[in-house]
Specification:
The complex is a heterodimer.
Chain A (H helix, E strand, L loop, with lengths): L12 H36 L7 E9 L6 E6 L5 E6 L3 E6 L13 E6 L7 E4 L6 E6 L3 E14 L2 E10 L6 E2 L7 E9 L2 E8 L4 E10 L6 E10 L7 E4 L5 E6 L2 E7 L5 E8 L8 E6 L5 E6 L3 E10 L2 E11 L9 E6 L5 E6 L4 E5 L4 E6 L8 E4 L5 E6 L2 E8 L7 H5 L14 E2 L10 E2 L1 H33 L2 H16 L2 H18 L1 H23 L3 H7 L3 H19 L1 H9 L3 H7 L10 H25 L3 H9 L4 H30 L2 H6 L17 H8 L8 H37 L1
Chain B lengths: L1 H5 L2 H31 L6 E7 L5 E15 H6 L11 E8 L10 E5 L3 E5 L4 E6 L5 E10 L2 E2 L7 H49 L5 H32 L2 E6 L5 E5 L3 E5 L6 H17 L2 E2 L4 E2 L2 H32 L4 H13 L4 H24 L14 H26 L2 H9 L4 H30 L2 H6 L26 H11 L3 H41 L1
Antiparallel strand pairs in B: 1-2, 1-5, 2-3, 3-4, 6-7, 6-11, 7-8, 7-9, 9-10, 12-13
Helix pairs in contact in B: 2-15, 4-5, 7-10, 7-12, 8-10, 9-10, 10-12, 11-12, 12-15, 14-15
The chains are: A alpha+beta, B alpha+beta.
Chain lengths: 752, 555
């Protein structure tokens, strides 16, 4: 039918304008709403995306190296405004990395300079970056300690940072070698007032000296107590290192790495000697402890960097080889001359003999970067505490690079594959996002929580699919219209029940019952079907009137008291069964005899509770599918002599199977995303085990638990968004599949 | 037998059994919640039990019977409890709520049934509800005023109760007044003072803080502080007045304990109540539950702020979701072309209803709270920074997040309503010369309004029960202030709020005394279920009614 245009019907222009406005308004409104819904997808993606970004380095500024002599150490303060440099002549120089108007300083200009030692030092060392102390060895086995400090003040809301030099121990020298020999190599760490030195003297002795401080109560004077020892180790020493907890000394020699324990009182004992087999490992060219000081990183002559940390073995905790990183192509023989750790993260930087700068992350095994940035041939590099600036020395020039490396700890393989974390006996899937300390190694494996999600959904489906589908089939196919009209909405009302209530009942009502009446629950699951079949057998022997009465769907109502009775029976005999079969305590029996861990809030409880949340979804869709199978199909089958059961199983179910499939998919989608039930009815421990008596942690519960405490923009925050994104895509895909199948089915029926 | 299996009858019976199990689950669940929730309000009788310990000594325990349990003896033996002269395999044990939290280590106590020597329900034993430390059970022996007994000789029970009732009423009155004063007037002064502080900051930021402005603000502050002093003195006077009386109670240890009257909320004698008194008590308890504030970390008292928060948030959400949902549905059904793209969009919208709610919460937190809220703070509330105004979870963000969550529900329901309207009606209207907009406005939308209502009701029902996303975007366990109060601008959409569903989670799982809080959680659950099931039933009946209506139109 062709509709005449309104103008032809004499509509006034005002009405036409209104019509057009309405069309325009509704269209924009409608499209805006749909776009807003799309926004969810893109926003999640937008938040997740940065974790997969690579490292970006950009040259900012360049200036010539201030001060005299050769550089032995570089450093930066937290805001990367001021840098400092220690030289081999014993000079400390602070210089501006940015123009600093209040100090009338241009980039690279010296802000403060001081000669720290009176004579030329014989050796130099620095602590781990976060401890921020430096030591010069002076002739006669003495050591001068210094700390590079900054003072920040605020004026009118503006921040001013100024450098300070702090000589530790009031500038007094510390006698490290009582024999007063010159030290040619030095390692130093401190913890509060305690200090630990390791050194090589010019006569080749390797000495360790542990200092403890005690404070005089009356005068307030600090006196140092020394515990000196000499290591029985010969041969040249390539590098020395001391752990920040002052408990270990590492001595690197050409073909081995010797590790010594230092007791609290300063007694040194050998712990382990790692043989560095020439065939396996090329010559070691550098050694460095990683942030957190659990890992030793060794740089090799062939451009390889190996990671070693302590692992629990039969002989106690031993250092062992864990993994390696290839900086340059192997054939290039591009030795690693320096390794620079970050302050808190497990990222480290490498300098190769040919001047390339490398960025790596140990946990995620990520080779993030390896190149000569902007053609700068790096000889020495340092990173600031916030890891967003690199200061690189090249020839007589210093280069400032901005560093964008927000999420090195996240890689696709790190999220989904086994990772060997520090201190773990073997590679594992672990989710442990936070801990008390700053230099904690975060463990972001999505596998345990994805596994938990699948486990919870699987147990729920195991429970819900048989009941939901069977109930749907009976309601749609065998029930008379009046009964169905009551039964269907009753079951569907459960879909509207807030899951927080189901979760609460599961956690505080069902879980204790399941714990004390475990045999009762198992018995109910077994006895109810048996009792129903028995009842059916009895009823088939009953007179015809009674049987007729039971048709039309009344059977379901008649069975209610039976099921209740059987359930009651099963529960009331539960303590007795427990007494007879399980020595009065199933829980203990499971743990002791069968070795099965039993949590009060376990998968059984989740399965039942979430099963009940999913039953109405499955029931509702499957019932619709079965009910809308055209009646002439089943009537035809019955007319040809098939029994009702044959008609159902060979005609009706076959025709409705796509709808049933979509019902199960929808149910699965709901089970996967359910939050409150799993949050409340499980212990939320991210373990990987199919054991029905243990809990799990699911993606959704994990988000609910950890999201409020994650720092905005951190890797943890973005990974939680990734978890949400995975959930979103997963359920959306399942639901779309189900919906498409359902719509096709509908078209098929309408053509029948 | 084999033949019988072949007929498929047993399988049909099994499917019937599945229906029964589903029905039992639904009805059983509702019955369980209703029973547990409502019995919380019913006055429980107080038992006075003589317990004989294994060493022969007896002690008295006074408390409400809370639960009984059948335990196998062996489990008791494992936990180190040995009962002599008892050889059954299981025994019954009673869980008593004994209250008196400050004098006993635990306010719940397990008692083995065989150890009970005597069990009585004396008429005079009183249950004293207090604003702190929970219930107290015992015999009231005296009423004190300024520490002196108000009776000349030892009083009769009836006399005592009468005196007590009068004095409690007086104290409650004073407490009410004091609370009113504190919340409305003193609250308003504090609010105003904070506003002034922000005003000064705002002016300073804009560099418009002239001396005259500064003086004006300072003068107003001084005035407010002076007002505050006066009110504070008034408040102290009231508190002084309230602490005049106290009660002496003999507890189960046989000791006399003095309880200050201002801590007492109610004194009842449950064992001495008739049926009518019990019913009255039951309803007054329900009334208190829905109208009072929670006490003692939410484990006692009412849930009024949670009800208010839920209702307010849901209303706000309805206001947002209805126009958008309806417009989107009209666009999809009336304006968008009938092509595969529209079909795809429709499927996408339906599927969004199946996306886990926590995903919406994550989206709401990241997008609304941090991104939009953070920007709003930068632009409109720079004076309050770094403490965020809208850049933190709040009731507005919760409402918007839930609006997006329920948008598919409204769209799907409205579209269904639109598609049920016979196209002959549209064509008739157009044929008579109406424009499309007029047809929509005058014919289609009024006819579809029940469907829109259904969609809205379903959306409200879903939103009221949703907890997971709210945990991220605005709900808190205890909000000091409601999102609506007497201070300009009256609606404080940036405030956090309490929610019934979250209340259940929080009190049931995060509270220090789960056992004591459990009945309250059941009661809250019952309240929430009643509201949601009621809303759903309404939606279903509206929908059925609608179907009937259009069935007649089609023919």
């Amino acid at each position: 039918m062709a509709v005449q245009s309104p103008t032809a019907l004499g509509a006034s222009s005002k009405r036409l304008v209104k019509d057009r406005l309405a069309r325009w308004g509704v269209t924009t409104g409608g499209v805006a709403v749909l776009v807003a819904l799309l926004l969810i997808f893109f926003y999640l993606l937008y938040v997740v995306e940065p974790i997969f970004r690579g490292v970006e380095l950009e040259q900012q500024r360049q200036f010539s190296v201030p001060g005299t002599g050769q550089t032995v150490a570089l450093g930066m303060e937290e805001q990367s405004e001021i840098g400092y440099r220690f030289s081999d002549t014993g000079e400390l120089t602070y210089f501006a990395l940015l123009p600093k108007p209040h100090m009338q300083a241009q980039t690279g200009q010296v802000l403060l300079q001081q000669q720290l030692t009176e004579v030329k030092p014989t050796a130099f060392t620095q602590t781990q970056p976060q401890n921020n102390r430096f030591a010069y060895a002076l002739p006669g086995g003495k050591v001068q300690l210094v700390e590079a400090k900054f003072k920040t003040r605020f004026e009118n809301g503006q921040r001013f940072t100024e450098p300070r030099i702090n000589l530790v121990n009031d500038g007094e020298l510390i006698q490290v070698d009582p024999a007063e020999q010159d030290l040619v190599q030095l390692a130093y760490e401190y913890d509060g007032d305690a200090m630990l030195f390791a050194a090589v003297t010019d006569s080749g002795r390797i000495i360790v000296n542990a200092f403890t401080a005690s404070r005089n109560f009356l005068t307030g004077q600090v006196s140092l107590k020394s515990k000196f020892s000499e290591l029985e180790l010969s041969g040249p020493v390539k590098a020395l290192s001391v752990t920040p907890d002052l408990r270990q000394v590492l001595v690197l020699q050409p073909s081995r790495l010797a590790i010594f324990d230092v007791s609290r009182s300063g007694v040194v004992t050998e712990r382990q000697v790692l043989a560095l087999d020439k065939r396996r490992f090329a010559e070691v060219t550098s050694m460095q402890l990683l942030a957190g000081a659990s890992s030793i990183m060794l740089g090799h002559a062939d451009g390889r960097i190996t990671q070693w940390f302590e692992v629990t073995t039969d002989e106690g905790r031993r250092y062992r080889y864990i993994r390696d990183f290839q900086t340059a192509p192997k054939a290039a023989a591009n030795a690693v001359i320096d390794i620079v750790p970050e302050y808190f993260r497990r990222t480290f930087y490498s300098i190769s003999a040919q001047g390339e700068l490398g960025v790596f992350h140990t946990t995620s095994e990520a080779d993030l970067y390896f190149a000569k940035t902007a053609g700068v041939s790096a000889e020495r590099a340092v990173v600031d505490p916030r890891a967003n600036t690199l200061l690189v020395e090249s020839g007589d020039q210093l280069h400032v690079f901005s560093l964008d490396n927000e999420h090195p700890e996240v890689t696709w393989s790190g999220l989904w594959q086994e990772v060997w974390y520090e201190g773990y006996p073997e590679p594992q899937y672990v989710w442990q996002s936070t801990s008390g300390s700053d230099d904690f190694e975060p463990k972001f494996s999505l596998v345990p929580i994805s596994f938990g999600t699948i486990k919870a959904a699987a147990y729920a489906m195991l429970f819900a699919v048989p009941i939901g589908l069977a109930a749907a089939i009976y309601t749609a196919y065998f029930m008379s219209a009046p009964v169905r009209k009551i039964v269907k909405p009753t079951v569907e009302i459960m879909e509207a029940l807030p899951t927080v209530i189901l979760g609460f009942l599961a956690g505080l009502w069902l879980a204790p019952i399941a714990e004390t009446h475990l045999p009762g629950i198992i018995a109910t699951i077994l006895l109810v079907p048996a009792a129903i079949i028995l009842f059916a057998l009895i009823s088939s022997k009953l007179p015809k009137q009674v049987r007729n009465y039971l048709s039309d769907g009344r059977a379901a109502l008649v069975l209610i008291p039976l099921v209740v009775l059987v359930g009651y029976f099963a529960f009331s005999m539960s303590p007795l069964v427990e007494q007879w079969l399980f020595d009065g305590n199933v829980r203990q029996y499971l743990t002791n005899e069968l070795g099965i861990t039993f949590d009060q809030r376990n998968s059984l409880v989740v399965g039942i509770a979430m099963g009940f949340a999913v039953i109405p979804t499955i029931f509702s869709i499957a019932e619709d599918a079965v009910f809308s199978v055209p009646k002439h199909l089943s009537n035809g089958s019955l007319a040809l002599g098939a029994t009702p059961w044959q008609t159902l199983s060979r005609v009706v179910l076959l025709t409705a199977s796509p709808g049933i499939f979509s019902a199960v998919m929808m149910g699965l989608g709901r089970a996967v995303g359910e939050t409150m039930i799993v949050l409340m009815a499980t212990g939320n421990t991210p373990i990987m085990d199919w054991n029905i008596f243990e809990g799990m942690r699911t993606l959704s519960a994990n988000i609910a638990v950890e999201m409020p405490e994650s720092e905005v923009g951190s890797s943890h925050y973005r990974i939680l968004f990734l978890a949400a994104f995975v959930l979103f895509v997963f359920t959306f895909a399942f639901n779309t599949l189900a919906e498409l199948v359902r719509q096709r089915l509908r078209d098929k029926y309408s053509s029948m | 037998m084999k033949d019988w299996f072949k007929t498929g009858r047993p399988w049909i019976w099994l499917t019937a059994g599945a229906v029964s199990v589903s029905l039992i689950a639904v009805l059983g669940l509702l019955a369980l919640i209703a029973w547990r929730g409502l019995s919380f309000f019913w006055p429980a009788e107080i038992h006075e039990i003589q317990v004989q310990a294994s060493d022969g000594s007896t002690k008295t325990v006074i408390g409400e019977l809370y639960d009984t349990e059948e335990v196998p003896m062996e489990r008791l033996a494992e936990s180190g409890i040995v009962l002599e002269n008892y050889s059954e395999e299981t025994l019954e044990r009673w869980l008593l709520k004994v209250g008196n939290r400050e004098y006993v280590p635990l306010d719940f106590m397990w008692i083995m049934e065989p150890q009970i020597v005597a069990d009585a329900k004396p008429l005079d034993v009183a249950k004293i509800e207090r604003s702190k430390n929970g219930n107290f059970y015992g015999y009231i022996t005296d009423v004190l005023e300024q520490g002196e007994s108000v009776f000349n000789s030892s009083p009769e029970q009836s006399e005592l109760r009468e005196e007590l009732a009068q004095r409690i009423e007086r104290v409650l009155d004073i407490n009410d007044q004091a609370e009113d004063l504190q919340n409305s007037e003193i609250g308003a002064i504090n609010y105003r003072l904070n506003q002034l502080r922000l005003e000064r900051r705002a002016l300073a930021l804009k560099e418009q803080l002239t001396d005259s402005e500064e003086q004006r603000i300072a003068a107003e502050e001084a005035q407010l502080r002076a007002d505050y002093k006066v009110l504070e003195e008034e408040l102290f006077a009231m508190r002084e007045e309230a602490s005049r009386d106290s009660i002496v109670v003999r507890d189960m240890r046989g000791m006399d304990v003095t309880i200050p009257m201002y801590r007492v909320l109610d004194v009842t004698f449950p064992n001495d109540m008739g049926a009518i008194a019990k019913v009255g008590y039951f309803f007054s308890q329900i009334g208190n539950f829905v109208s009072e504030n929670p006490r003692e970390a939410n484990t006692e008292g009412g849930v009024f702020p949670a009800i208010f928060g839920t209702v307010f948030m849901v209303l706000l959400m309805s206001v947002i979701v209805t126009p958008f949902g309806v417009v989107a549905a009209i666009y999809l059904h009336e304006y968008a072309g009938k092509n595969p793209v529209t079909r795809l969009i429709r499927i996408a919208v339906i599927n969004l209803a199946g996306v886990p709610s926590i995903v919406y919460g994550v989206f709401g937190l990241g997008f609304f709270v941090y991104m939009v809220g953070g920007s709003l703070d930068q632009i409109f509330y720079p004076e309050a920074l770094p403490s965020p105004t809208f850049g933190t979870p709040g009731v507005m963000w919760s409402a918007i997040t839930l609006a997006i969550l329920t948008l598919p529900v409204v769209i799907v329901s409205t579209e269904e309503g639109l598609s049920r309207i016979p196209s002959s009606l549209r064509e008739g209207s157009l044929a008579l010369g109406a424009t499309k907009a007029e047809t929509l406005w005058r014919i289609i939308i009024p006819m579809a309004s029940p469907a829109i209502m259904t969609g809205l009701i379903l959306a409200v029902a879903r939103a009221a029960g949703e907890v997971a996303p709210l945990m991220l975007v605005g709900v808190v366990k205890s909000a000091p202030m409601l999102p609506v109060d007497g201070n300009f601008p009256y609606f404080h959409l940036d405030r956090k709020f309490m929610h019934l569903g979250f209340h259940i989670y929080d009190v049931g799982f995060q509270s220090p005394n789960v056992e004591a809080a459990r009945p309250l959680v059941y009661a809250t659950s019952f309240l929430l279920v009643t509201v949601i099931v009621g809303l759903n039933l309404t939606a279903i009946s509206v929908r059925n009614h609608l179907r009937e209506k259009y069935r007649s139109l089609e023919h």
